[in-house]
Amino acid sequence: MQIFYEPEILTNGGVLNEEESKHCIKVLRHKAGDQIHVINGRGTRVLGTITEASPKACSIKIDQTETAEPDAPACHIAIAPTKSIDRFEWFLEKSTELGVDKVTPLLCHQSERRQIKLPRLERVITAATKQCLRLWRPEIDELTNIKKFLEADHPGKYKFIAHCMEGERRELISELTKNSAKEDVLILIGPEGDFSPEEVNMAVKNGFVPVVMGKNRLRTETAGIAACLSVKMAEYYK
Predict the structure, then answer these.
(1) Which end of the chain has the lower number of beta carbons within 10 A, N or C?
(2) Would I find S-adenosyl-L-methionine among this entry's keywords (predicted)?
(3) The pTM is what?
(4) 128-150 pLDDT, tens per residue?
């Protein structure tokens, strides 16, 4: 099934944006009369018939509409982007496939990457959303200083910080199975040099529970994937 993404498909008269129109008409060679699927990224997928095969503004007549509620609990991963942007893009792709709902790139004391190109990362998420047939497209924030992030209010969330320092840390998967109220889950993943002691202490003071994800030390992007998968599997096996 070929999926196209147009966030305003229900309100703009059934017109695809220029990027999706070009891909539909020029690359995939669709023509008037063909049926295509379009998602808005907010829980709706439509089946429509192409009425105007323009590579700049492909128009469709909506024939069927399907809706879905977002998964509960929602999974929010706040993670320091890796030095290699390819590895961070891999994380975004795979976490989208696994069901992440929101990603916040964090700027930490030991971050090796201190800037991101958000439009490119948005495109990675969009492509992954279409590929895995999701109706809800994950959100991604601008790069956010961890202090500012920790000082912000995150109501109604199970909050965790995964780090490698000595001290009391709980098993993430065990903690997630206690989430009987299906509260949204927020997990912090640090940079390749880990969080600083000050960042960990600040997180704990703001209600984040220190956790581990197994006995092995994980790369940042692997930890992000493991965290997302833990949220989904804990809910699946309840």
Answers:
(1) N
(2) yes
(3) 0.94
(4) 999 999 999 999 999 999 999 99
